[in-house]
Structures are given as C-alpha cells and as structure tokens.
Amino acid sequence: KVLGSVLANSQPYRLSVRDIQPSEQFTKTLFVQFESTPSLVQLRQALQHASGSQDGYDLNPHLSLLYKEMAHQVKLGLTASIHIPFTEVLFDLAKAVVCPQPIKSRDDVECWRVSAEQKLIA
Q1: Can you point out the beta strands (E) in the chain?
Q2: What is the dihedral of CA 42, 36, 104, 48, to 10 degrees?
Q3: Which residue, among 72, 35, 34, 41, has the nearest Cα to 59 in the 3D structure?
Q4: Alpha-carbon distance 45 to 98, whole Å?
Q5: Which residues on adjacent β-strands are paired with residue 62?
Q6: Using CA atoms, how far apart are residues 69 and 46, in angstroms rounded to an integer?
Q7: At a CB cut-off of 8 Å and minimum separation 6, what does 29 contact?
Q8: What is the DSSP code (8-state) at residue 28?
C-alpha cells in the first residue's frame, strides 16, 4: 500500500551516471554510482513518512553490478575495465524488496522477495 500510494502518479526518474566504484560491502562489490536529485530525496522522505519508518536510511542511488568477496586490487582492475556507454538511466519501475539484514552471502541474496511494485507513468 505504501509504495502504491506514494508513487501512484509519479513520473519515471532519470538519473545521471557519476562513475563505477568498488566497495567492501558485499552488495556493492562493484556498482554504478548515480547522482541524486531533489525529487529522489523527496521520494525517500515521502516513503519514510508513509511507512512510519524511523530507520534513518541514507539514500545513495546506485546499481550493483557484482556481489562477491574479492581482493581490493581485483576490484580496482575490474572497475577500470568497465566503460558505460551512456550518461543517464531512466527508472520507470519501483519495487519494494524484503531482505535479511545484514546481507553477507549469496544465500542472503537468494532470500530476497519482492513485496510490491509500482510502474512509474511517463
């Protein structure tokens, strides 16, 4: 209900690609970092308000490319080898995903379940 009510008449979100980065976080081994936008920040606030959540979630728009434990130097090499042939991405579907915390393994990822989805209307 929360996702549908907040996003009922929302337009797709167009986010600019910043770069590709590695991290030590399992779910962000390699990821595309996007620039945030004021409308995305407002969306996060609306979702937090509608859900009653007080978790202090910090919105960091990204797209994970790889979930894997690996040496930092290997991640850096992979990051340098990837070229993204576009500068922005259009997001026209939102999904709410229920997942265990913390996420540290493939088994944890395979437990993820989509609990809701909402098409964003252009």
Answers
A1: 13-22, 30-34, 62-66, 88-91, 93-98, 113-119
A2: 0
A3: 41
A4: 19
A5: 33
A6: 34
A7: 22, 23, 64, 65, 66, 67, 68, 69, 70, 75
A8: G
Question: Could you report the per-residue pLDDT of 88-99, keeping only the tens digit for each?
Answer: 999 999 998 999
Distance CA 11, CA 119 (A): 9
Whole-angstrom distance, CA of residue 87 vs CA of residue 34: 10
- Residues whose CB is less than 8 angstroms from the CB of residue 45 and which lie 6 or more positions away in sequence, other chains included: none
Tell me the per-residue pLDDT of 73-119, one tens digit each, with 9 for 90 and over. Answer: 999 999 999 999 999 999 999 998 999 889 999 999 999 999 999 99
